[in-house]
Amino acid sequence: MSDIIGIIVLVTGLLFNLFGCVGLIRLPDIYNRLQAATKCVTLGTCLVLISVMILAGCGGFALGVKALLCLAFVVITSPTAAHALARGAHASGVRLWEKSVADAYRDDHEPGIDNRKES
């Protein structure tokens, strides 16, 4: 039974990784791409690591601990790296996609600018 659950979790994680990679290729600007990479790929990778823990079972205690440590590392570093990349891109002047509605980060840091587009 645990093998079936492990395989289901593995396939779900692989699908999230696939959708994140497709979003990384298909989305229009760096900010949207970082969104896809951070959310989908982090969740997909965590699900793959959880499936490793499930499939390893009690006999693979060392493997399960390593997977858990990798999971903690991915959960901490992936959003942090994406935030640093997005902030660096914004600071260096990388523009939003032309159909973006608002730049909330600029609104917070430059309050005199009304950034909303007219409909």
Explain what this protein looks like in three dimensions.
The radius of gyration is 19 Å and the shape is elongated. The chain contains four helices and no strands. It has one domain (2-109). The longest helix is centred in the middle third of the chain and has 31 residues, at 61-91. By secondary structure, the protein is an all-alpha fold.
Q: What summary fits the major beta sheet?
A: none
Total individual domains = 1
Question: Helix count?
Answer: 4
Mean pLDDT: 85
User: SSE string, helix = H, strand = E?
Assistant: HHHH
Spatial shape = elongated
> Roughly what percent helix?
over 70%
Structure class: mainly alpha
* Stretches with pLDDT under 50, minimum 5 residues: none
In what range is the share of β-strand residues? under 5%
Rg, rounded, reads 19 Å
List keywords for this structure.
119 residues; mainly alpha; elongated
Compose a concise summary of this entry.
The chain is mainly α. The chain has helices at 2-26, 30-56, 61-91, 104-109.
What layout of secondary structure does this protein have?
Elements: H1 2-26, H2 30-56, H3 61-91, H4 104-109
